[in-house]
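Archive maintenance. Older records in this collection stored only the sequence; we are now back-filling the structure field for every entry so that each record is complete. The fields below show one back-filled record exactly as it appears after the update. Entries are processed alphabetically, and DUF58 domain-containing protein is next in the queue.

ARCHIVE ENTRY
Title: DUF58 domain-containing protein
Organism field: Pedobacter chitinilyticus
Length field: 448
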Amino acid sequence: MKKLFRKLYTDLFLENRLFIALGICSAMFLFAFFLPILGDLPYIAFGVLLLLILIDIYLLHSSKKAVFLRRDVPERLSNGDDNELKIYLENFYPFQVAIGIIDEIPFQFQKRDLWFNTTLKSREQKIINYFLRPTKRGQYDFGFTRLFVKSPLGLVSRRFNVAGKEMVPVYPSFLKLREYELMAISNRLTDVGIKKIRRVGHSMEFDQVKNYVAGDDFRTINWKATARRADFMVNTYTEERSQHIYCVIDKSRAMKMPFEGMSLLDYAINASLILSSVALIKQDKAGLITIAEKTKNVVLADKRPTQLNKIMEVLYKEKTRYLETDMEALFVSLRSALKQRSLVVFFTNFESMSALERQLPYLKRIAKYHLLLVVFFENTTLRTLSDEQAKDVEGIYIKTIAEKFAYEKRLMVKELSKHGILTLLTAPQNLTVNVVNRYLAIKARQQL
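Back-filled structure field:
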């Protein structure tokens, strides 16, 4: 009995309507002191209010099966994307109820005002949808979903604690990966900025011999097959397949810089996952290497169906280190792990010319054995500052410094190109599209 009363007390909350009614009763008692004509009216009003409170409490606790709630959370969340979550509600009371919902989402979102209001008629069902955008990978712990149910009287509310605690992992951007795959199937990649690259010449990888149709290149006529069939036959060629594509991700402190809530490392991880997916669709072999003060993880290039999941599991656990990148260790790892010429896409960041000069000798040595594409990031904040009009001396100083850093970035591109190293300077939000475009261009031009 004591336990039941304790639960009733802890789950009972007073509503604004009750406080308004108590205020009116208090005012009536006050006026009755000066106006005897009111007589016992304040006592009657207060007694009616107490009776209504008891009725309200009885209505909220009269049904054994009151309100059903289920929170539908995906098995995993996609980093940097809007993930849809659902709250399913059903009312088993014989009357309409007003419901307030607090969902205890993980602390990583730093959001304490997630509150939903709704009304449900008897036996009515409803689904509430909302979206969460995580900006860090790892484990996210959801708490309780708390319901505050009010009867039509609305004097008190009853709290229900349902949909208990659960842990959901946040993986690299697999929602965007799925979007790219669907667009690739429907030939709608241009919707997200993927360009159609004009193929220069044709690959020397033979595909098949087929009948000549208008528009085929005369230079591909197979004269021997033509003589046998007494009809024009042409050779067809396909893009070279099974080329090795490695994404190398720098995890040093240079990749900790934030942009729109996500670090540069997270942008690089999302782009690597999508680039690996595109490479596998193109029948190439995708691999992965992560590097900081030493080589951390090496996933050898392969094109098996399970390769993408293997890459995703490695990327899920990666975190930024706070030391310098050991480029010598990277060169040694590439020489030992890569047995043939490969496309090495190196995601890193250089903020000064001196930082590039320290790493340049190792980049030149890597480019000697492989096709190296260095991807680093444009500082969009500095670009905004350099584009703004200076209004005072301080503004001129800031604008000059911003332009100096932006000019250094362009110098880095020229310096790398001078040594035969491919470069891609891009804003973080355009990273994925630009990297995929560059990969398709390399394939079309047969640079690898």
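Update note: Residues 254 and 373 are 18 Å apart (CA to CA). The radius of gyration is 33 Å.
Entry marked complete.
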